[in-house]
Amino acid sequence: QVQLVESGGGLVQPGGSLRLSCATSRSIFSSRTMAWYRQAPGKEREWVALIATGGRTNYAPFVKGRFTISRDNAENTVYLQMNSLKPDDTAVYYCNSIPPIDWGQGTQVTVSS
Fold it and tell me: Would you state the pLDDT for residue 113?
């Protein structure tokens, strides 16, 4: 069964940075666009960023200029570098392919002083 394993979350102060990682199988990673999503308490899950197999990226307006998505094809891993974090960025962050597979457990990001 193909899995998604997210890591790298934690507690950070406003203005700080975190780097999230998401590993999956080569069969998924090598053939699909990968994306990051997030779900804040009491809210719907929302799309954050995507990266195509060829490296094209796209970002939600609320993270553009602060977050950077990248992928390591040798490690079958997608990253999300998050800078200038705000309290509104607090959420569980998930990755998935497009089209999606079963969701992983996500990684909690908390931005608070």
Answer: 95
